Amino acid sequence: SLFWSLVLLLMMTYMSGTIITQGVVDALENEPDKQFPPELRPYFGTLDATMLTLYESIASGVSWRDPLWQLRDLSPLMAWVFVGHVSLVIFAVLNVVTGLFCTRAIETTQKTPELVAASIISGRHAQANNLRALYDKIDKNGRGFVTLDNIAEAMKEPELKANFHTLDLDTTDAWTLFKLIDMDRSGHISKSEFLEGCEALNGNATGVELARLHYEHRQLAQKSIPFMEDTGK
User: Fold this and answer.
1) Is the dihedral of CA 133, 135, 136, 138 positive or negative?
2) pTM score
3) CA distances (Å), origin 202, targets 51, 62, 131, 167
4) What CA–CA distances, in Å, run from 19 to 24, 28, 61, 78, 189?
5) Sorting pLDDT into bands at 50, 70 and 90, what band is 201?
6) DSSP letters of 111-136?
7) In angstroms, rounded to a whole number, what is the distance separating the alpha carbons of residues 42 and 35?
8) Is the Cα dihedral 107, 11, 50, 71 positive or negative?
9) pLDDT tens-digit profile of 77-115?
10) Cα–Cα distance between 178 and 57 in angstroms, integer?
């Protein structure tokens, strides 16, 4: 696709160059006594010179305003052809080529294990820093731990609530969130507990987590069968 985009760019440059060159050559031959701009022939006197001028105009090799003024004095129609070509190439073709390069770069990154691992590690570091900053905002007094009341108050503040949402943490039930994070059931949450608990609750459940939950549920059901049988007797 990149190759065909370059082919399209070449064809457009050739077609626009042919039209402009033909118009310039006809004007120079039909009106030999007329005083034309001095730079007109170097810019558009031959097809290869015109194509080079068109290429330089989009590649910052020359300010496209300079050749445009030369054409405008010759023919407004040729000037509009020049403007149309530059606009179409810059806003359409080059954007497509840039998009293709970006897509290829993203695909290469996704297929390289080292880059994927580096991206995951960088994301986890950033998430941990955000969680530490959030914990410090909740622990306003700097006690080193937060309680259920602190979590509930934090969820009432728009800024802190937005921070929870940014980290994909549900803020509809402060009590449930607190109990899930308070692993040692001490009634308060340390910073390490907060980081570990929020990281575990962040995002959707993975396949391993769902399989472990299913396994634990199956084990609990098997242990409950003898008890239920004894109860039935």
Assistant:
1) positive
2) 0.43
3) 56, 53, 11, 7
4) 9, 15, 22, 8, 76
5) confident
6) H-HHHHHHHHHHHHHHHHHHHHHHHH
7) 15
8) negative
9) 888 989 998 888 888 777 777 777 777 777 776 666 666
10) 63
